[in-house]
């Protein structure tokens, strides 16, 4: 087929076939009628047909395309239907007389018509966010399709098509003539030249076969998986099928993903990895992939601009043009060499390191062993109390080390804590691609290898055969543009005699490239290929130790009991905390919105100092007599209502609730306990017995011992009765249970309940519920236990204790979690009379409950809550955040309700506002997306459909807004 034919085809508008024309075609040739809706297309005219026989797509093509090309499309579909592992494809529907292609004329113009089954499913193009799982699935689909087509052959595959990447250069030249914007035209042309130059040497090695050549978000359909991600499994259009480069097929797929990448070309890498696992590409194909993606981006924008010029009413093309320019801009945002390295790494291919044999010392007068390397990573002992946020902290630490040791240096490949940014939706560039050396001014610097000198703006480059040395901080002693030999002097470190100077060292394997000093964690593996370690010049100590989080997780899972789960399937390795923020080993900062253990926030210096001082002084068990236990018990009793003046100190909430149950049974002489459904109270035998949450224990409802009696949870949002005025209704549902206990004649020991329904997401109990059920319990001689482990201790903001909101006084209070800010500490507060009942069963002892260190920790937490007004902050920030979350309900149907108060909140997600069907899978996916955006969040409730919002009480307004903004972004864009 001649180039003239291709040129003529590129100028074709869509067929002039109206809805009325299409209806007549359907009736005449297929005996079909129904409702028609136009579908977008570049040069065809497509209609979706909804009829009583099913859904179809009517495809109308110009007669300028040879019939054998359409026959090849149909034949490929039939071929794939015979392959068990191929993706879903539509059926080809024959006409009344058995033809699969109809040649006809409409208003004097010849067209070819086909009818295909409409393949149901969700596409990807309209999604604003495509999850990594969906990206990988698209790559896998492309591989499976190519693999299934490997043995397909048809004469119609050899065709002249503007999308054939083998012809990308000539096609671009032809298309550019239609672009009137000279700046855009020049930019596109230069980009294509760069891409073609990189493709041409590889072209002879690129395999040819039948390829779909348009596996894009527009042409695939899929289904949502258990996590709410769309997993493509079907292909709906074969209009671009050709015999072409195999790797070009993947290039088309990857290019299509770039418009949803938010400017990050590394977004495509899961697709590359998934493809390679199924249908491996050669190293030459992998190296050609990115230039082909760039070439595809050029053809997309050039074709779009050209098609608008010949078919200005084509809304489909006009709507796609912005996306195509986004693809182009993203493709050109990084060096070709970087993406080649990234693709090779993603595919598991080996990347050769530069040959440093024969290199000479950079610092000829300094032995490598004399250099002291400074740890500036996330786990560095030099950092505490947020001091890394000081702009010059790294240099101060480096200068101090140099003063003490003579020469000091930072480490290559280290994820610098000082580069972390709080409240940022994207991971910042934290991985050092260079080394800074602090050393005596005037120290000699020599060329490690032969090369050419370039000196500009006090920056020196020495360009060798395979690598370029970049230096800053040098007083140059050679001429610019000079050719020098290995070992020749370059100059000396700038600075006054007897002072310290600084030298910055970086290597780069790409000639003429000015590399960044830092890389993001996602880009680090690729950048370290382009910027090899200066340890080649300075010795192995220059490299920071690598953190292998995946290997560490494997070790954890190998030795830690399986029941001790971790957050997230692929969890970040968290190694530092500060206030409401957590930091992983790659320097990524996360906003911690779920950690109700650290009530003060992470890394509080006053608490750390107090615990350290006490530990140095004394720590022992609570049977010894020391001041701290008396003082702390006194302070806890003072926080409780009058009469609750006796304290037991323990280690955890489970232990506190276990002891509370034992106290109730000892005091009452009965064993039966009343508790709520959907509740969680701990993991000890007794506290687990009254824990009925099926999220924590799927067998909870069928494995309760006979002394546990459950009543319906008073869930005012989705329970049997809804709203705040339902206390009497829920008490009525508890009455038969109480009557059954009465009938048994064994009495009632007590009732345990969270004062705010924390495990269900902070749902408030109906007004007056505790007053009424407490009265019923006490009338039977039982005790009332308020489980304040999660909701009490200032967290509610408006109240110190949750039971205050209900206007009651319990007989026993249990508290833990935040009272030690992460130190294992819990307490039971009750009356002297109830406490003495336990003595009938013997003495009570908890080895470290109430130890000197634990008591100091507990008192210091109380001091800080008061000094920093954290209860007031919980009220102010919590009310602000609750209002932000409530505003989401009007805009997003999935947001059903906001529960709780202060900084114990729950946002409940539902699929239907009438049935309140829980959006369980969606909630899990939303939490995963929030993690990507820098927010730690987890679901709660029996249906795991409520966001569990319980951050440290030091949460700032700015952090609360960041959380609300990120959540809104997820709900707007998808998950």
Report on the architecture of this protein:
The protein is α+β, with helices and mostly antiparallel strands and 975 residues long. The longest helix has 28 residues, at 283-310. The chain is flat, with a radius of gyration of 35 Å. The protein starts with a helix and ends with a helix. The model has no long low-confidence stretch (mean pLDDT 94).
How many E strands? 38
| Main sheet characteristics | 8 strands, mixed
Strand order of the largest sheet: 11-12-14-22-18-17-16-20
- How big a fraction of the residues is strand? 15-25%
- Poorly predicted tracts of residues: none
Alpha plus pi helix count: 26
Average of per-residue pLDDT values: 94
Distance between the termini: 46 Å
Integer-rounded radius of gyration: 35 Å
- Counting helices, strands and paired strands, the structural category is alpha+beta
Shape: flat
Q: Which bin fits the share of residues in helices?
A: 25-40%
Question: Can you summarize this structure?
Answer:
With 975 residues, the chain is of the alpha+beta class. It is built from 26 helices and 38 strands.
Task: List its traits.
35% helix; 18% strand; alpha+beta; eight-stranded mixed beta sheet; 975 residues
């Amino acid at each position: 087929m001649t180039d003239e034919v291709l040129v003529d085809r590129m100028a074709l508008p869509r067929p002039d076939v109206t809805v009325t024309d299409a209806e007549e075609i359907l009736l005449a040739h297929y005996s079909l009628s129904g409702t028609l809706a136009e579908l977008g297309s570049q040069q065809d005219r497509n209609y979706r047909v909804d009829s009583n026989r099913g859904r179809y797509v009517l495809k109308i093509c110009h007669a300028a395309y040879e019939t054998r090309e359409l026959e090849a499309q149909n034949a490929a579909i039939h071929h794939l239907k015979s392959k068990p592992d191929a993706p879903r494809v539509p059926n080809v529907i024959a006409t009344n007389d058995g033809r699969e292609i109809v040649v006809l004329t409409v208003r004097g113009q010849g067209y070819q018509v086909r009818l295909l089954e409409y393949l149901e499913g969700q596409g990807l193009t309209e999604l604003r966010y495509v999850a990594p799982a969906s990206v990988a699935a698209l790559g896998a689909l492309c591989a499976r399709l190519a693999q299934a087509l490997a043995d397909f052959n048809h004469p119609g595959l050899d065709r002249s098509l503007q999308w054939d990447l083998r012809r990308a250069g000539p096609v671009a030249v032809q298309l550019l003539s239609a672009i009137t914007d000279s700046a855009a035209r020049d930019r596109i042309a230069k980009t294509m030249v760069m891409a073609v130059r990189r493709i041409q040497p590889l072209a002879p090695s690129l395999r040819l076969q039948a390829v779909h050549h348009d596996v894009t978000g527009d042409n695939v359909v899929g289904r949502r998986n258990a996590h709410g991600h769309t997993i493509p499994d079907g292909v709906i259009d074969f209009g671009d099928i050709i015999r072409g480069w195999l790797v070009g097929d993947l290039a088309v797929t990857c290019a299509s993903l770039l418009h949803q990448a938010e400017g990050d070309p590394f977004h495509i890498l899961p697709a590359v990895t998934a493809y390679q696992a199924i249908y491996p590409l050669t190293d030459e194909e992998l190296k050609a992939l990115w230039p082909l993606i760039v070439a595809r981006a050029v053809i997309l924008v050039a074709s779009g601009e050209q098609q608008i010029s010949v078919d200005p009413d084509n809304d489909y093309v006009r709507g796609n043009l912005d996306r195509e320019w986004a693809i182009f801009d993203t493709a050109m945002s990084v060096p070709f060499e970087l993406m080649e390295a990234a693709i090779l790494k993603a595919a598991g291919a080996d990347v050769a390191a530069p040959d440093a044999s024969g290199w000479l010392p950079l610092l000829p007068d300094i032995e490598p062993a004399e250099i002291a390397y400074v740890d500036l990573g996330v786990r560095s002992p030099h950092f505490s109390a947020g001091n890394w946020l000081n702009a010059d902290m790294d240099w101060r630490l480096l200068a101090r080390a140099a003063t003490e040791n003579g020469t000091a240096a930072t480490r290559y490949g280290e994820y610098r804590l000082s580069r972390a940014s709080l409240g940022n939706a994207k991971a910042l560039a934290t991985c050092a691609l260079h080394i800074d050396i602090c050393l005596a001014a005037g120290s000699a610097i020599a060329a490690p290898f032969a090369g050419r000198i370039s000196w500009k703006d006090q920056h020196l480059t020495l360009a060798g055969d395979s690598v370029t040395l970049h230096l800053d901080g040098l007083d140059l002693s050679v001429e610019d543009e000079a050719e020098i030999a290995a070992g020749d002097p370059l100059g000396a470190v700038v600075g006054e005699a007897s002072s310290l100077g600084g030298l910055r060292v970086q290597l780069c394997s790409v000639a003429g490239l000015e590399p960044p000093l830092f890389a993001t964690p996602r880009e680090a593996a690729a950048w370290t290929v382009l910027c090899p370690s200066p340890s080649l010049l300075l010795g192995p100590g220059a490299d920071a130790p690598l953190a292998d989080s995946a290997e560490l997780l494997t070790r954890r899972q190998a030795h830690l009991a399986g029941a001790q789960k971790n957050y997230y399937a692929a969890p970040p390795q968290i190694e530092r905390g500060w206030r409401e923020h957590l930091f992983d080993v790659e320097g990524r900062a996360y906003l911690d919105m779920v950690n109700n253990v650290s009530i003060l926030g992470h890394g509080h210096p006053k608490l750390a100092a107090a615990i350290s001082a006490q530990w140095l002084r004394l720590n022992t068990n609570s049977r010894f007599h020391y001041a701290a236990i008396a003082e702390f018990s006194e302070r806890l009793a003072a926080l409780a209502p009058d009469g609750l003046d006796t304290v037991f100190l323990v280690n955890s909430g489970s232990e506190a609730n276990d002891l509370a149950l034992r106290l109730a049974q000892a005091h009452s002489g009965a064993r039966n306990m009343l508790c709520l459904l959907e509740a969680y109270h701990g993991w000890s035998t007794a506290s687990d017995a009254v824990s009925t949450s099926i999220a924590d224990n799927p067998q909870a409802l069928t494995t309760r011992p006979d002394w546990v009696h459950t009543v319906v949870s008073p869930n005012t949002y989705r329970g049997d009765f809804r709203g705040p005025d339902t206390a009497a209704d829920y008490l009525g549902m508890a009455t038969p249970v109480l009557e059954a206990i009465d009938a048994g004649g064994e009495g009632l020991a007590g009732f345990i309940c969270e004062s705010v329904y924390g495990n269900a997401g902070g749902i408030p109990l109906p007004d007056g519920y505790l007053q009424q059920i407490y009265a019923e319990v006490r009338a039977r001689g039982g005790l009332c236990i308020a489980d304040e482990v999660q909701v009490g201790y200032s967290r509610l903001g408006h109240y110190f204790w949750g039971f205050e909101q209900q206007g009651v006084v319990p007989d026993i209070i249990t508290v833990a979690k935040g009272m030690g800010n992460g130190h294992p500490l819990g307490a039971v507060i009750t009356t002297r009379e109830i406490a003495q009942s336990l003595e009938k069963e013997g003495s009570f002892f908890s080895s470290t409950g109430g130890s000197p260190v634990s008591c100091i920790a507990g008192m210091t937490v109380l001091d800080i809550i008061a000094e920093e007004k954290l209860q007031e902050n919980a009220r102010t920030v919590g009310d602000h955040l609750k209002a932000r979350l409530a505003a989401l309900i009007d805009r997003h149907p999935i947001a059903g309700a906001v529960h709780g108060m202060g900084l114990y909140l729950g946002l409940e997600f539902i699929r239907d506002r009438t049935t309140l069907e829980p959006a369980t899978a969606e909630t899990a996916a939303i939490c995963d997306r929030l993690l990507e955006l820098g927010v730690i969040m987890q679901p709660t409730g029996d249906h795991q459909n409520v966001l569990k919002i319980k951050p440290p009480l030091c949460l700032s307004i700015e952090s609360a807004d960041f959380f609300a903004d990120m959540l809104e972004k997820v709900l707007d864009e998808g998950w």
